[in-house]
């Protein structure tokens, strides 16, 4: 047996160390005003669902005023709400209602870039080269005889050069779409602006921030060439001069001081792609952010040995800095894991098992809206709906298919309760086949994915050995994983396509069955695990 220990935290409430946080992609969660687009009123109307599900906090994707070139991640005003999502009063009411139900609210902040419609960038375009207005962004002269070539070879994450030329001949940097110019974080005014933005939302009562591109604000001195193409594929695997530079950590330390100045343990969560778990752990050192998304876990293929390796490395490196590990299976930027795990019945079986694995691991877990319904990626959206700018790089990398609105009811026609009655058109079409995947249908089915999530989350809350703490690996047959949490709880996972028999002495050690994603069969003290399944066991039969 191998035990992985996490040092006890020096905090008061520790809520964030083992919280289950539910990601709401606002455009696609619930439409409250009948225009076919999700909004804050819709989120408010479904808070009771999230409370009943058993999560601890909600992360809301950007709802700020935006031209929507990247669906809100191009922010024109960081202190207001886009009319398509509601008003500032709606945001205040949502925060208050959530707190009344015991739910915390985390909002997105987007500090690497603004919209090209942000007043700062509009002023920069009107101003001359070398002006104070341009100093807030990264403007450079081009290469070539007449400056006709980009300043370096950096590529946009969305495809093409990361530079766009303006009328006077200078170029500006945008690591994403041309409508998302990168800010110059060497400029003190940028630091002051975002410190004020954080305080604005903290004063309104939010419990923390998910920091978009938390690894991206600082660029290597001199903006050196990468020297290779296909740079988007290098992110998170190799060192690149525009991401994961050491200077970002001073920004996060300053933000941590702001968070710590407020009561209630307000938190910062890093969206950070780093080339190693050790580099990722730098973002959650005691004086920096509280959590960092574990994309290494998300990207792990369905293989027991690979999962154990990633779990070991994640827990080990987080423990080096006294932080909890953070687990995530899907989000608004990747294909849904039902599809990644093979799709169809096989993908659904694996997704059910993965849910029990994730919720049994030490640390905090993130649930992307709809994964509790077992929603697959929508792969056949009509061309006229496909608007994701990432498709410019590679049509197969488009993120529209994981952002399709949620089905709430099984009555009538699509969009199945996403919008008020009588509304038939949502911003992305809900598949007709999702009727049986709707919340209403699954609530009535005790064997549904939603019922599994509700049961698992309830048990996680009831059992103190789950969440933060230690993990002890147990011996198990090839293709399986088994570990203990505390003295009484065990999780056993069969990641093979075959039934696997567990030796009798192991089976006795597990105790009684608490919860299963599928199967198992027991006979005469022997356990047979169903293919692609996970089981929870307890010695106390609680």
From TrEMBL:
<protein>
    <submittedName>
        <fullName>Glycoside hydrolase family 13 protein</fullName>
    </submittedName>
</protein>
<dbReference type="InterPro" id="IPR006047">
    <property type="entry name" value="GH13_cat_dom"/>
</dbReference>
<dbReference type="Pfam" id="PF00128">
    <property type="entry name" value="Alpha-amylase"/>
</dbReference>
<dbReference type="InterPro" id="IPR045857">
    <property type="entry name" value="O16G_dom_2"/>
</dbReference>
<dbReference type="GO" id="GO:0009313">
    <property type="term" value="P:oligosaccharide catabolic process"/>
</dbReference>
<feature type="domain" description="Glycosyl hydrolase family 13 catalytic">
    <location>
        <begin position="23"/>
        <end position="403"/>
    </location>
</feature>
<keyword id="KW-0378">Hydrolase</keyword>
<comment type="similarity">
    <text>Belongs to the glycosyl hydrolase 13 family.</text>
</comment>
<dbReference type="InterPro" id="IPR017853">
    <property type="entry name" value="GH"/>
</dbReference>
<dbReference type="GO" id="GO:0004556">
    <property type="term" value="F:alpha-amylase activity"/>
</dbReference>
């Amino acid at each position: 047996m191998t035990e992985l220990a996490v040092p006890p935290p020096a905090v008061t409430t520790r809520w964030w160390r083992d919280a289950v946080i539910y990601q709401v992609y606002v455009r696609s969660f619930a439409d409250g005003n009948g225009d076919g687009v999700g909004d804050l009123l819709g989120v408010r109307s479904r808070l009771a669902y999230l409370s009943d599900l058993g999560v601890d906090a909600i992360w809301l994707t950007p709802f700020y005023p935006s031209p929507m070139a990247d669906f809100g991640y191009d922010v024109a005003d960081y202190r207001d709400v886009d009319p398509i999502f509601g008003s500032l009063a709606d945001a205040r009411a949502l925060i208050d209602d959530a707190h009344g139900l015991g739910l915390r609210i985390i909002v997105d902040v987007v500090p690497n870039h603004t919209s090209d419609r942000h007043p700062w960038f509009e002023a920069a375009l009107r101003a001359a080269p070398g002006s104070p207005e341009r100093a807030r962004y990264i403007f450079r002269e081009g290469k070539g005889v007449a400056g006709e070539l980009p300043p370096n070879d950096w590529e946009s994450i969305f495809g093409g050069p990361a530079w766009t030329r303006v009328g006077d001949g200078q170029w500006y940097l945008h690591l994403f779409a041309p409508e998302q110019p990168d800010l110059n974080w060497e400029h003190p005014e940028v630091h002051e602006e975002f410190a004020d933005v954080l305080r604005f939302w903290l004063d309104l009562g939010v419990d923390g921030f998910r920091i978009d591109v938390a690894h991206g604000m600082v660029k290597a001195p001199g903006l050196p060439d990468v020297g290779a193409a296909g740079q988007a594929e290098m992110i998170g695997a190799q060192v690149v001069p525009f991401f994961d530079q050491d200077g970002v950590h001073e920004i996060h330390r300053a933000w941590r001081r702001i968070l710590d100045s407020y009561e209630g343990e307000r938190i910062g969560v890093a969206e950070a792609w780093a080339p190693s778990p050790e580099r990722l752990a730098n973002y959650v050192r005691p004086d920096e952010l509280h959590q960092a998304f574990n994309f290494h876990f998300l990207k792990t293929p369905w293989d027991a040995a690979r999962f154990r390796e990633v779990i070991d490395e994640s827990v080990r490196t987080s423990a080096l800095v006294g932080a909890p590990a953070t687990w995530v299976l899907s989000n608004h930027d990747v294909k849904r894991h039902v599809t990644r795990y093979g799709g169809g019945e096989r993908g659904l079986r694996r997704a059910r098992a993965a849910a029990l694995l994730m919720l049994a691991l030490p640390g905090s877990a993130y649930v992307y809206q709809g994964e509790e319904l077992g929603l697959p990626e929508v792969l056949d959206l009509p061309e006229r709906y496909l608007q994701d700018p990432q498709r410019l790089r590679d049509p197969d990398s488009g993120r529209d298919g994981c952002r399709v609105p949620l089905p709430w009811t099984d009555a009538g026609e699509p969009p199945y309760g996403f919008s008020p009655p009588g509304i038939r058109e949502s911003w992305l079409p809900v598949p007709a086949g999702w009727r049986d995947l709707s919340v209403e249908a699954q609530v009535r089915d005790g064997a549904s994915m939603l019922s599994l999530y509700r049961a698992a989350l309830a048990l996680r809350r009831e059992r103190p050995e789950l969440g933060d703490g230690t993990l002890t690996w147990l011996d198990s047959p090839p293709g399986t994983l088994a570990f203990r949490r505390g003295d009484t709880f065990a999780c056993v996972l069969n990641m093979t396509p075959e039934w696997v028999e567990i030796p009798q002495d192991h089976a006795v050690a597990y105790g009684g069955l608490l919860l299963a994603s599928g199967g198992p069969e027991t006979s005469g003290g022997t356990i047979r695990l169903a293919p692609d399944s996970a089981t929870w066991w307890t010695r106390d039969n609680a």
